[in-house]
Amino acid sequence: MPTFQAIVIDKVESGQSVRLTDFDDKDLMDGDVTVRVEWSTLNYKDGLALTGKAPVVRRFPMIAGVDFAGTVESSSHPAWRAGDKVILNGWGLGETHLGAYAQKARVKGDWLIRLPARMSARDAMAIGTAGYTAMLAAMALERAGVTPARGPVVVTGAAGGVGSVAVALLAKLGYAVTASTGRPAEAPYLKGLGAAEVIERKALSGSPRPLGKERWAGGIDTVGSTTLANVLAMTRYGGSVAACGLAGGMDLPVTVAPFILRGVSLLGIDSVMCPLPLRQEAWRRLETELDRGKIAAMTSEIALADVIDAGRRIVEGQVRGRIVVKIP
Q: Buried (b) or exposed (e) across 91-129, using 16+ Cβ within 10 A?
């Protein structure tokens, strides 16, 4: 395949251009494993890259897409051989290294995870970086001592990709989950995922006070900014909040009060450069501890040609749950 289909972002005088086009195999970047990409997915970060709403892309031209699942075509890496089924999340894919919205990818073998035996490539991308990030956040809460017995937990941006998987995952693990969303009509959807309570985003969007009423033992925040500040101010003594998103902004208008008066911890979650052992643990647990039926129910499928429009919709808050991308 000397050329293959790819969604390419390029720099132009007015900002950037995005198009589905033919890409030449010889222009792929260095790597010791070549993968035939079979499935990808759409994350909020992909939407930011496709629309240019944030400076995600740092090299042009760039094939967009931050994660994929597929089959190894060729490898000089000792861990991989032709025919192996693999997953890649992050490592700069779609940012500094040519990405996933393409029929082919050439990457470093050290970036790859073996596809779990009980998952198809489509299953893996229905989970995707969103689900993998949600599991990293849940694992961080566990390490911080936030157990179901400690009390309820909150998930912000709950109708989005990370939020939806976080609600389903935490409920499966036994937590009483409060789901916060800016789309009140999604309450039945969120309760179907396992939320015990659904609150409107406006309950967490006012000017944050140094401390509020103690409500949650912990939480997973995908929004940032004022929402995260309010969650921290309302977290119970000794609780922890895992922060993994910025849909509401990168600022954090919080005081030190939750940290020094209630011993609250803010846990940063990075899925891009996360060390391999932690990635492997997250995917092992996703294979067995995530209700795959709930993931299937929240997942829709699009073609590669539909990705550009879907990227706009996810940034505008018009996407619920997960989207998988079938690569032709």
A: bbbbbebbbbbbbbbbbebebbbebbeebebbbbbbbbb
The conformation of residue 115, written as its DSSP 8-state character, comes to P
CA 90 to chain centre: 10
If DSSP codes are grouped into helix, strand and coil, which group holds residue 289? helix
Other Cβ atoms less than 10 A from the Cβ of 5: the count is 18
| Domain coordinates in residue numbering, the chain | 3-115+298-326, 130-268
Fold that domain 3-115+298-326 belongs to in CATH: Quinone Oxidoreductase; Chain A, domain 1 (3.90.180)
What whole-number distance in Å separates Cα of residue 7 and Cα of residue 21? Answer: 6
What is the model's pTM? Answer: 0.93
CATH superfamily of 130-268: NAD(P)-binding Rossmann-like Domain (3.40.50.720)
Measured distance CA(265)–CA(241) in Å, rounded: 6
Instruction: Name the token pair of 95.
Output: 């940012």
At 198 the three-state DSSP class reads: strand
Distance CA 161, CA 322 (A): 5
Task: Show Cβ contacts of residue 104 under 8 Å, excluding neighbours closer than 6 positions.
Answer: 1, 4, 25, 28, 34, 35, 36, 37, 73
Confidence category of residue 2, pLDDT binned at 50, 70, 90: confident
pLDDT in tens, 77-135: 999 999 999 999 999 999 999 999 999 999 999 999 999 999 999 999 999 999 999 99
